[in-house]
Hints:
Distance between the termini: 64 Å
Strand content: 35-45%
Number of strands: 4
Structural class: alpha+beta
CATH class: Alpha Beta
Radius of gyration: 22 Å
Largest sheet: 4 strands, antiparallel
Shape: elongated
Helix content: 25-40%
Number of domains: 1
Order of helices and strands: EEEEHH
Strand order of the largest sheet: 1-4-3-2
Amino acid sequence: MPIVGFNFDKTTAEKKANVKKGMQASHSILIKSVLPEKINLGKEQTSSGLKFTFEYNVKYEPKIGEVNVTGHILFLEEEKRIKEILTNWTKNKKIESELTTQIINTAIVKSTIKALSLSQDLNLPPHLPIPVVSPHIDKAREYIG
């Protein structure tokens, strides 16, 4: 079933020191909780779903700064399937790989963009490679006649 909602709950960014040569940026994402959620689909219509809470962090080392983003994803699913997912999460803190991939990829795409914007506001470098254009100098071609 589909993802039907995405929201940021909290964003923080802090620059602790000036950027130094040799600085490293690393990022991580973690699903913090999985809870049942009633999802409104219209005026009087609700359906069963799940609320996945996540945390996305970017750390600039050595102790230069950090960006933290927390949010949640609403996922629509059948009641039986919801119970299976919740039981597995409660017992093992695990989610099946297909569902994990879908949830994590959605969170990463949205959170990376948000973290990039926040880091730019603080003059921290991007935490992932950004495409750049460099001039292309053509060598004089030899005449072939």
